[in-house]
Design brief:
The complex is a heterodimer of chains A (about 625) and B (about 325). Helices cover about 35% and strands about 15% of the residues of chain A. Chain A has helices spanning about 5-15, 50-60, 80-85, 100-110, 150-155, 160-175, 195-205, 210-230, 250, 255-265, 275, 280, 295-310, 325-340, 350-355, 365-380, 435-445, 470-480, 570-580, 590-595; strands at about 20-25, 65-70, 90, 115-120, 125-130, 150, 390-400, 400-405, 425-430, 450-455, 460-465, 495-500, 505-515, 525-530, 545, 600, 610, 620. Chain A has a six-stranded mixed sheet. In chain A, strands 3-4-5-7-8 form a five-stranded mixed sheet, sandwiched between helices. Chain A is globular, with a radius of gyration of 26 Å. The relative contact order of chain A is 0.14. Chain B folds into two domains: about 10-195 and about 270-315, NAD(P)-binding Rossmann-like Domain (Rossmann fold); about 200-265, no CATH class. In chain B, about 40% of the residues lie in helices and about 20% in strands. An eight-stranded mixed sheet of chain B has the order 3-2-1-4-5-6-9-10, with helices on both faces. Chain B has a two-stranded antiparallel sheet with strand order 7-8. Chain B is globular, with a radius of gyration of 20 Å. The two termini of chain B are about 35 Å apart. The chains are: A alpha+beta (about 625), B alpha/beta (about 325). Chains A and B meet through helix 1, helix 16, strand 7 and strand 8 of A and helix 1, helix 2, helix 3, helix 13 and strand 10 of B. Bound molecules: zinc ion. Zinc ion binds near residues 137, 412, 416 and 419 of chain A. The site of zinc ion has 9 residues of chain A, from loops. Chain A: Belongs to the ubiquitin-activating E1 family. Chain A: It is found in: Nucleus.
Chain lengths: ~625, ~325
């Protein structure tokens, strides 16, 4: 079992009751309060402990005589290699992110062990079976690309609340509390030459001996006042848009209020909550309330004050965490103030937290149902009852009277680069793109490899590993900075590169085609991978884009970004509604299936029923 | 909406599900009182689900003393005679369930379903019965219907790798979101007695065969005076005979109730844990919908068979009722 979260807890219980005697379970996460509403093997007293271990102990209480081995570890750790996977009869996934799913898919293919894959969100869920050579693998169908937003929408022309959240979280929060050296677009979009970047950077530095409240007001006036004025000076931008309204601290805080604000803090200084929460120190209780502009401003100043007075040591190293109350309060307030400026409706902290944290919706019942379905498939796999394997969708609204809909698995996709070894093609400017770009944008981001080796014929261009000697490390580091055509064994049109991941025991060949020009808007990577269809990215107009949340290219180990038990969405209508909130790791087998022209549903009657792709649900058509 | 905000503790604990059904629904859940009768594996799954969801209270009734067989699909009770010795199933389940969510009041009542009067049912908003006779199902459903308030009534049973849920929400109004609009809907449910009295001939040809098979076994139990779940493979000739009689009386082809399905259902009467999880999950979801008044509830039977993997809704009601 990979994953001891929402699906994992249910799955471990149902496996144990069903008579499974030898179960290994891997999960890198520890237990959080918000898990307790559905991860029923965990109690308040377990918060902070390893999910895998606590789940094991809990199940052994009602089935003491079975063997359960727990691993508090990342499934991508090198220990979990092909040899490790070979010891199992079947692998069951209860994962929450695309990266880990792809990784396990490759290991199961390499070890030739059947994989039962699953996911839930809200009332929707799915279970699929993947057996090498018999059914499609997890990666036979491309997964939707992460939702991203053009930089300029975020920095200058937000039109939705999520744009304000991304701005507050990825730009402002990072600028004030995160790594100062990180590239940050907070100020780049001004046509005004006067604001040279050097001056601007200084604005965000708290001066020595500067009073924290004074500092807060200066930041406020800069980002919500001055920057908006600056943007307004660019008339072109506002021809077809509503002009934003600059907001200055003096507008939102009367002297009286500012004073009161200070005194409230002192009164509550002994309260524990006020050390970590601006809401607590301001006496605001309900996270479902939508605060006024003035309340948001007070929260903004209070969060800044609390960060600098109580958490000064962390400043410079913070990154946004949805479980960090103060960070969520800051982002909510900043996003709301920006929203007010741009005439976008304000949102509650509860809603803002969901958007900022990519929190996916989760309930116990769906996880229980999906876990039951996984066990049914696992039993068929153990019996090698291949004809009975099914992918099953758990629906919110019945389709053909069905809430649980079984579908026959698809055959492997013959052009899948993962399970069929079909070579890929890459169009790239071999005179401009560096090996580094190729490694980051293709090998890691697109191919999902962790420990790649890149070869041209027998010549090694790049590899990673602990056992390399210094010369090699220096050599590879130098190669990374070279453009492809100038590598020791030059990569030009017609070259075939072999990329291999030793841990995944997965190799693929890439035919290189030199191409001079790329469309900055449509091909922002400056390269184009094809041969296996990747859906067009959500990019619209800009040369760069920002996604909500840690993008997979920044964090190859992505198990931190969402909850344990979410993926697939079955209803397209629902997906549209969630698409702004939910990260695109929503792999979506049901949607994929629907996007093919037809989908054959298992039916014990003689007539065949076909489902046609339709954005508003399943449209039925009966064939003779 | 209806007063009383959720506490900070509730908001933190229920965060993920509030994102699914909203704070109003969560408030309604926390005020709902649920009764379950018959504590086998499927009901244990259901109880876990609604205790986690945060209902106001859950009352368990099952005076049977725990045996290894009764516990085979029940994760609430350790397979340890020292723990369950002498205690009833309800008492044992109560101890574990309390632990799942300290905000839910879980308690035990003693007695037989047939002995509970109308006043007893008045204490609850939701009644779920399992492992009981046809007569007891009809009676409990009728007593719920005699109350001035609406009590949502459910029966649930699993045999072999099959499961059945029956739902009676009486006259049920609810809202659902369609695109950006919220629309008001209304459904009329028949009682259990009314539903099972609908002539088989009047049902669509493709009605789940499980529906008919479960009725045959239920009627056999009744006719032979057996305890619920105590029809065994030795009874197969009798069951097949009754099936023939019922099909003749209902003037339907005997192929509506395949012999091999009946045989399956009485060969293995113990529950199959994955099916308990699935049926307990669907039932949990339905009860949450009924309490919160959000989303389409199922009307009025649900069937799952692990053999074909289908989870099917059947509307078994007199098409002319209420017209
Ligand atoms: Zn494949």
């Amino acid at each position: 079992m990979v994953g001891a979260g929402g699906i994992g807890c249910e799955l471990l219980k149902t496996l144990a009751l069903s008579g499974f005697q030898d179960i290994h379970i891997i999960d890198m996460d520890t237990i959080e309060v918000s898990n307790l509403n559905r991860q029923f093997l965990f109690r308040q007293s377990h918060v902070g402990q390893s999910k895998a271990k606590v789940a094991r102990d809990a199940v052994l209480k009602f089935r003491p005589h079975i063997n359960i081995k727990s691993y508090h570890a990342n499934v991508k750790d090198p220990d979990f290699n092909v040899e490790f996977f070979k010891q199992f009869n079947v692998v069951l996934n209860g994962l929450d992110n695309l990266d880990a799913r792809r990784h396990v898919n490759r290991l199961c293919l390499a070890a030739d062990v059947p994989l039962v894959e699953s996911g839930t969100t809200g009332f929707l869920g799915q279970v699929t079976v993947h057996v090498k050579g018999r059914t499609e693998c997890y990666e036979c169908q491309p997964k939707p690309a992460p939702k991203t937003y053009p930089v300029c929408t975020i920095t200058s022309t937000p039109s939705k609340f999520v744009h304000c959240i991304v701005w507050a979280k990825d730009l402002l929060f990072t600028k004030l509390f995160g790594d100062k050296n990180q590239e940050n677009d907070l100020n780049i979009r001004s046509s005004d030459g006067a604001s040279s970047s050097e001056n601007v950077v200084d604005v965000f530095e708290r001066k020595e001996d500067e009073d924290v409240e004074q500092y807060g007001r200066r930041i406020f006036d800069h980002v919500f006042g001055y920057n908006i004025e600056l943007a307004l000076s660019n008339e072109e931008t506002w021809k077809n848009r509503n002009r934003p309204k600059p907001i200055y601290s003096k507008d939102v805080l009367s002297d009286e209020l500012a004073h009161q604000n200070g005194s409230v803090n002192k009164n509550l200084a002994t309260d524990d909550g006020s050390l970590v929460s601006a809401m607590a120190s301001l006496g605001m209780k309900n996270p479902q309330d939508i605060w006024s502009l003035s309340e948001n401003s007070r929260i903004f100043f209070e969060t800044l004050r609390l960060f600098f007075t109580n958490r000064g040591k962390e400043i410079g190293n913070l990154s946004f965490d949805k479980d960090d109350q103060l960070a969520v309060e800051f982002v909510t307030a900043a996003a709301n103030i920006r929203a007010a400026s741009f005439g976008i409706p304000l949102h509650s902290l509860f809603e803002a937290k969901g958007i900022a944290g990519n929190i996916v919706h989760a309930v116990a019942t769906t996880n229980a149902i999906i876990a039951g379905l996984i066990v049914i498939e696992a039993i068929k796999v153990l019996k090698s009852d291949i004809k009975s394997y099914r992918m099953t969708y758990c629906l919110e609204h019945p389709s053909r009277k069905m809430l649980l809909m079984p579908v026959e698995p698809f055959e492997p996709n013959k052009s899948c680069y993962v399970c069929s070894e079909t070579p890929l093609s890459l169009e790239i400017n071999t005179h401009h793109s560096k090996l580094k770009d190729f490694v980051e944008k293709i090998v890691k981001a697109k191919l999902g490899m962790n420990f790649p080796i890149i070869m041209q014929g027998s010549a090694l261009l790049y590899e990673v590993g602990d056992d390399l000697d210094e010369d090699m490390v220096a050599n590879y580091a130098a190669n990374l900075e070279k453009v492809l055509a100038e590598l020791p064994s030059p990569v030009t049109s017609g070259t075939v590169l072999t990329v291999e991941d030793l841990q995944q025991e997965f190799t693929c060949n890439i035919n290189i085609k030199h191409r001079k020009e790329f469309d900055e808007e449509k091909e922002p990577d400056g390269m184009l991978l094809s041969g296996w269809t990747q859906p067009p990215s959500a990019l619209e107009k800009e040369d760069k884009s920002i996604s909500n949340g840690a993008s997979t290219s920044d964090t190859p180990i992505a198990a931190t970004e969402a909850e344990k038990d979410e993926i697939g969405i079955v209803s397209a209508a629902k997906k549209r509604r969630l698409s702004d909130i939910v990260d695109s790791e929503l792999s979506n087998a049901a949607d994929e299936a629907r996007n093919r022209n037809q989908l054959q549903v298992i039916d014990d009657e003689d007539d065949l029923v076909m489902l046609e792709g339709n954005s508003d649900g399943y449209k039925k058509k009966r064939l003779q | 909406m209806d007063g009383e905000e959720l506490t900070e503790q509730e908001t933190a604990l229920y965060d993920r599900q509030i994102r699914v059904w909203g704070a109003d629904a969560q408030r309604r859940l926390s005020k709902a009182h649920v009764l379950v009768y018959g504590m086998k594996g499927t009901v244990a799954e259901f109880c876990k689900n609604i205790v986690l969801a945060g209902v106001g209270s859950l009352t368990l009734v099952d005076d049977r003393v725990a045996t290894e067989e009764a516990l085979s699909s029940n994760f609430l009770i350790p397979l340890d005679e020292n723990v369950y010795n002498g205690k009833t199933l309800a008492e044992l389940c109560c101890d574990s369930l309390k632990d799942f969510n300290p905000m839910v009041r879980v308690s035990v009542e003693k007695g037989d379903l047939l002995s509970f009067g109308v006043d007893f049912f008045n204490k609850f908003d939701v009644v779920v019965v399992s492992c009981c006779s046809l007569a007891a199902k009809k009676m409990a459903n009728d007593r719920c219907r005699k109350l001035s308030k609406r009590v949502a009534f459910y029966t649930v049973d699993c045999r072999d790798s099959c499961g059945e849920i029956f739902v009676d929400l009486q006259d049920y109004r609810y809202s659902k979101k369609k695109l950006e609009e919220t629309i008001e809907c209304q459904l009329q449910y028949p009682s259990f007695e009314e539903a099972v009295s609908v002539p088989w001939r009047a049902l669509p040809r493709k009605t789940s065969k499980l529906y008919f098979a479960m009725r045959v076994i239920e009627n056999y139990e009744e006719a032979e005076g057996r305890n619920p779940g105590e029809v065994l493979i030795a009874d197969l000739p009798g069951v097949l005979k009754l099936k023939k009689e019922l099909c003749t009386a209902q003037s339907v082809n005997e192929s509506h109730v395949p012999d091999n399905l009946l045989e399956r259902l009485i060969t293995n009467t113990t529950e199959f844990p994955p099916v308990c999880a699935i049926i307990g999950g669907i039932l949990g979801q339905e009860v949450i919908k009924a309490i919160s008044g959000k989303g389409d509830p199922l009307k009025n039977f649900f069937f799952f068979d692990a053999l074909d993997g289908k989870g099917i809704i059947e509307d078994i009601s007199d098409p002319n009722a209420g017209k």
